[in-house]
Design a protein that fits this description.
This protein is α+β, with helices and mostly antiparallel strands and 191 residues long. The protein is built from six helices and twelve strands. A hairpin with a 6-residue loop joins strand 9 and strand 10. The chain starts with a strand and ends in a 10-residue tail after the last strand. Its main location: nucleus.
Amino acid sequence: MSDAAVQANCLDCGKSFIRRSVLVRHQAIHRGEKSHEGVDYGKGFIHRSNLVKNQAIHIGDRPHKCLDYLVRHQVFHTGERPHKCLECGKSFVRRSILVRHQANHTGEKSHKCLDCGKSFISRSELLKHQRIHTGERPHKCVDCGKSFIRRSALRSHNCLVLWPLGPWSQLHKCLVCGESFIQPLCLPSAS
């Protein structure tokens, strides 16, 4: 069977996938299958990225230069969000993320495009905007090859253009408007 878009359901948990290859990788979790093994020590991992991280420990390659960086990194795993916005109550892992978030409340737009003069709240939004001027289109559809400036445009393309009425059109139906989508992330509540 090819890896073309098809509805594929996991028999163990019922989760739906649009690619058979993703379903096969997912099912390895239920089987406890660990296809990525360390050569010297035999420890197995489901995901290759975890093997690479584990190997770094064995060869002495420490990704965190000092204890401070390690502690900051571990906050992601604990779920702790110690930096709280006093305006809306939302909490963040890092103070820098809180500061960037607070610009939403103040309306401060300190990042200016040198090409057209438009200003943005964050540097990342400015960089995304500058793709209009540079022509960079980093988000590419794996099925048709069309490229997009923003990831959200690729998502819309995948949801609405490639499969508007196919056999998957009833896969995920919006309870508010009745519109159907191939992926749950296409539903209005997921955006």
